[in-house]
Amino acid sequence: MALDATKNFAKATVSQGYSSSATTIVLKTGDGAKMPTAPFNAVWWNDTTYADPSDDPYVEIVRVTAVSGDTLTITRAQESTAAADHNITGRVYKFVAGVTALLPQTINTYIGPLLTPQNANTVLAGPTTGSAAVAAFRALVAADMPAGVVTSVVNDTNVTGTVVSGVMTLGWTGTLAAARLNSNVVQSVTNDTNITGSISAQALTLGWTGTLAKARQYSGTVYNDQANTFGSGLKQTFTTSATTAGLNLVAVTANPSSPASGDIWFRSDTGQVYFYDTAVRQLVRTDVATLSSLASIGTITTGIWNGTVVAVTYGGTGVSTASANVVFSGPTTGAAAAPSFRALVTADMPSSVATSVVNDTNVTGSIASNVFTLGWTGTLAVNRGGIGTGTAGIGAFNNITGYTAAGATGTTSTNLVFSTSPALTTPTVTTSAILSNNSLGAATADGYVLQNTTAAAAGAQQWSPNLHFKGQGWKTNATAASQAVEFREYLVPVQGAANPSGTLYWDSQVNSGGWVNQMTLTSSGVLSVPTGGSYQINGANVLTATTLGSGVINSSLTSLGTIATGVWNGTKIGLAYGGTNADLSATGGTSRVLMQTSTGANISVAQLAASDLSNGVTGSGLVVLGTSPTLTTSGTVSSTSIGTAQTAGWTVQNTTAAAAGAQQFSPMVVLTGYGWKTNATAASQEVDFALQTQPVQGAANPTGNLILYNQVNGGGWNTLLTVPSGGNLNLNSGSYQIGGTSVLSSSTLGSGVTASSLTSVGTIATGTWNGSVITVAYGGTGQSTFTKGDILVATGSTTLTKLAVGTDNYILTADSAQASGVKWAANTGGAAASQALDNLVSVNINASLLFQTGLDVGSAAKAARNLYLYGAGTYGTTSFKLDGTPTAARTLTFQDASYTVIGRDTTDTLTNKTYDTAGTGNTFKINGTTISAVTGTGSVVLATSPTLVTPVLGTPTSGTLTNCTGLPISTGVSGLGTGVATFLATPSSANLASALTDKTGTGVSVFGTAPTLSSVTSDRITLTGAVSATAWGTAGIPLRVVASTYTDTSSSGTVATAMMNTIGIPTIAASSTVTFTDAATFYIADKPTAGSNVTLTNSWAAYFASGNSYMAGGLQIGSGSFPDKLTVNGDQGLYGTSGTRKFTIKNTGSGTGDNARLILQNDSGANNQAIWANYSSGYTGTAFGITVANWVLLDISGGSNQGLIIGNESNKPIVFGTNNAEQMRLMATGNLVSGSTTDGNYRLDVAKSGSSGTFRVYDATATTGVTQCIVKAGAGQSTTSIFSVQDNSANTLLSVVSSGTSYYAPSSNSTTAWQFRTAAGGNIFNVDSTNGRIGIGTNAPGALLDINANSVSLSPGARLLSGNTANYIGFSVGRAAEEISIAAAAGADQFLTGTVAGSGVVASKNDLYLGTGLTVGSVVGTAQMKLSTGSGTSWIRPVTNSTTAWQFQNAAGTSFANFDSTNAVATLANNGTVGVGISFQRISSQYGQLAWNTYGSSYSAGATGYGAIFELNESSGTFSYYTGSSVTAGSNHVNTNTFSLAAGSGTTWFRPVTDSTTAFQLRNAAGTGIFTVDTTNSLILIGATSALHNTVSKLEVRGGRTYISSGGDTYALGLLYNDAANGQFFLGASNSATPDLILSNNAGTEIARFANSGNVGIGVSSFGTSAVGVIGIANGTAPSSSPASMGQLYVESGALKYRGSGGTVTTIAAA
Fold first, then answer.
1. Percent of the chain scored above 90 by pLDDT?
2. What beta strand segments (E) does 145-215 contain?
3. Can you tell me the mean pLDDT for 521-550?
């Protein structure tokens, strides 16, 4: 039986539903081709519902018996499946012809027997002879062998053979005749010129003679006697060894006369390597220090120039060094000249650099040494932002919604400035708001205050505004959307008797579904969550209204009950625990706003008067803050008349809609303070708490959490408290506290919580129950007291009662009559019990036996012979047995306690026992030694520390004597030094001196607390220990030198020194290298400090009571360097105690170098110091260019000093005077006053004028720098003149303001009221105030603006640079508004002209625009035309589309070219032709021709050129292009049609005028042909411009990959022999990300496949599992013939076979 046919991917869709009885089905169109050849089994199932067929309960296997197109004939219910309906509406049914159980069953049925074990060397074959029969396993016979199998051998003359047991053995006989040798067998040798040979014993021996000629060697061999050329790409490598170079160029002394490009050589005369590249070039050596005589070089991009200084004429500076503060510049004046280094002069400064100052009304300034010093004068006027009365108001409000300043449009770009404590009414803040209230320290102050100032009334409370948090959360249920998640916080006052109280509410709502209260806090401290809510810690419930969380296992409760409600009565809950840490019921504060007094000024907080909002404000409403305002100190939000309604006070919201998985959190309300850290390095650090709403994505609606965070020093936000919209209160960690005491953590109730109403608890492991008595029903006893001996006895299933103790010797007896079932009763057993035991032979008691009274075991008549007692051991083997035969009465007495009986053979420890050996036979042994007697009394002597009383010791070898007495020194101690024993016996000073070996001096030993030492010489005296003594005053205590008379017995005359107490110069040495930071000859640690009971009024480290002190060295006070005689460092000082002269530095000399000076230095040394000097009359030195004799100088010097500070820390002035009179004073306000002692509130106030004037800024000798006077307005001075000039009548001649109008006004009008002049006095700019005219270049302007450039050679004569895109020049005639305007755009290089509101022209350096409403900059408006000279696009467009949007018309107004922008159509007149650069005659009678001159110049008489024509033939619908031949002007072109675009069924074509190999090309941007048509050879080239095989090629693709896509089938490329051939082959790719290469025949049948995995298939398209690099061959038809010179490989029935050219078929591998 043959196996069913198979086919890959045989999966189809059933075209419709079928019932269980259908036997014919139709597949979707085309799917029948996917099926294999019938018959085969297939699976039929519902693919819509079940992706896996095995999941379909109605899946069915059918057998397809015929396939006709898409129609299949089937047999139902195959392979144990049932016929089912496959016709559910809306379901798609699939049909797969794949492997089912039938295939392995068939294989097993028909191939299984072949796998049964068989005998060795047997094959499955037919009969050995005769007719056909059933195949069977048997041994092969000779007849089975094919003709090619050897079964016998016919011997040759030389070759023999035999076949035995299937093995053919070959042999040899005789000698091979010469005739049998092949013609190529060498039998003799003819020698070559170089190669020789000889044959001996069948061995050919080759040899060599002579030298190989060059002609016989390889042509590519390199020789040293000829020129050698190395091929392209053959790199030669020369390796340098340690001793020899790899390449050597033999030196020459001249260049070769005829070098070729690429030649290289070395010249010994120059030491350089040269090469030739169209010219001789030199390879520069890096070790050449100089370039000898180069006359020119190329462009040097890197390197360092170390040559001589480059002169100015060659682009250098001409110098190698320059002085400080000079620049390389041209001359200061005059004509151009070579630049040089010089100091800057005023003319060098740009116009933006100020060199002088014009003072303002209030602000003054001066320039000295490049430092501009600002001053103040006068009082700030109201119109400048002052506090006086004025009408100007605030000059500009910025970022105020709806506000427009007078005369301006839009809003400005800076922020509105308000007061420091604003009162805001329902404001909305976008992005974020930061409220800073700094430097609070440990105190608190208002930040934001949300208040309702409307007074309450009886029964009508006024609620506070609410603090509103709003975010966006995403809901996932249909329809998914973003929804608002909101929390609000507000105060609800509660009417009270003596005082009202209040409750703080927290509400939430989602998607405006209504506010739900989540938590309240009363003013009495009660914190409550609504019904159903709970307290949580870290997401886990710790407390609800009725239940403590399961994680709470510890508490200190004293009572439990039912918790139905709860009241929080603790202190205010801090931010860290979900509260506010403040009582928000308080009100107060006044209405304040933030305001800005000038553009760019700092924000301030102040009250805003009604008049301040009168300028430009219409209507009423709220002031809108900027997007990110910062409020300083405090803010108050007020909402009035709220009553008991929920009203938003301060809303912090995020209005961005949420998306799926992307919630929109609310902004955070951050409360920021600063705390001090004490660890190193101590510093202030920011402490933040924040509140935020976090929406949580939900199904029907999102939910939300109110989160309380904190962070310290920007360390990252930590979650402290979560309030979900569901009503729980969740601490992230820590515990709930009241009054600072923990009341509940995640696992423990606070120890202070001693009362509750709990109804259930967990397992209580520790603690004491002091509650009511626990009843039996709950595991208790129900009893609270007991009497000694009481027994608890059950009287029922749930009751216990106390049974009192019975009478002595009574026993507990069961008694059902008793309520408890038991009672105490007298023991009535007595003798009867004994009698019962008497009659027993033995008694085994396996439990405890209680003898209530005395019991005799046995009796005199019947003694108990043996008594066995045992414990936990095995009875009978480990028993304790009392037995034996008594010889007399025996009594065994036991102690009246729990003791162990001592055994004879056991190890026991005796306690409190006396063992007396006095009795007969008693002995006492220790370690086997008998202790027979005792000597002495007392304790036993132990081994380690015995105390022996009057022992007699022998001679011990060692021992330590401690606390021994009576030891004689002379005989009992050995090893003492000389004299030591004598001293110990007689301890005198003399004996001690004899015993000491290193003593110094003589005398007696010094003892006592106050010894007197005379002439002590020692290398070290150390005084230690505390001393108590009577008062010592100035006498000293630890070291005292008493006033004495010291007599010099040797000196006479004048002696240089007599020092009483001298400390010599110590030398400090060390055994290792060491650096001592501080070393002193004499050191005093500090001044005395007060001890117990002592008060020190003055404490001195050193006290010199009287006399002068001399120091040849320096004296330093404080730590630091030591540069001079007296150095005072740090916070030290020199103080006098009385008199008028506290500290004097005096120099009594008067010579040229004498001066008295006080020098103050810091640690930087002499290069950074301050000097206060008084120079003598003979001093010849100078300072600052002044001879300083008799001068007092205060000077600071040093490059690192920051300047000189002269100040007064009090509020008193600093006065400067000369000639014993005050000349100037610096007031406490910072104002400088000259000529007056009164502070006029001017920063610089010159009250008196000098003989030459009042004020001068003048540098008569300066040659560099600039003299400037700069007046700059303060941050809040934008509306007031900052510089004014007035005449004696207080008329303002000049006013300069930073905001508003600056002006110059003459005292009286004139035609030359104001002028700018040249240095020579020539007029440049003239203002005619009489006629209101301005003249530039003329003194007599004849127009409002008269520019006269006749007197100067300027081009252009006038230039206008506006600097603002809104500025322009307008022209009008008799109208208020301009009719024609001209404007330029900053940065856009654009120029505009036209009417202000109408058409205009905008021109730039690259583009020209024509249109209406145009403005410069971004060309705002409607442009109708753009001409671009740059890289842009030129275009023409109408304002609005129309069918005649744009036309070309003749003089009569007739259009011959029309552009329809509505329909995007351009039309030329029917009889119109267009010529570009050419006049031509139409080539035919057809219309619509476009011709142009390709020669490059217009036709004129006698000129020649080429023409070209486009023609549209309206009759045929073709569009043609003609090229014209070269003709003279006026002649007709000979036109050649080179391409034609046909309409309808016509032919579109291109053709050259003449054939060429590059007749037609597509080129890239560089001009390189990438697609070439060779019309000469009918060839197309892609990636090349010339053919490799132009005589045979028709298509060549080179230089890259070629991709051919079929567009959806596997036939991408068809191959034919010629045009007449009917058959073709197809190459294509499979539909896959890793496609296979498929070869198909003319019928489209796949015949070979090259898989992407490396598999090759012939007739197959699939391979075995995991196959890689496999060749697959489909079953084929065996060849019936054997062509010569070939073999044929094929697969037949799964077996791989080979048919040779002789026709023999060999099975290489069985199926």
1. 12
2. 159-164, 167-172, 195-200, 203-208
3. 84
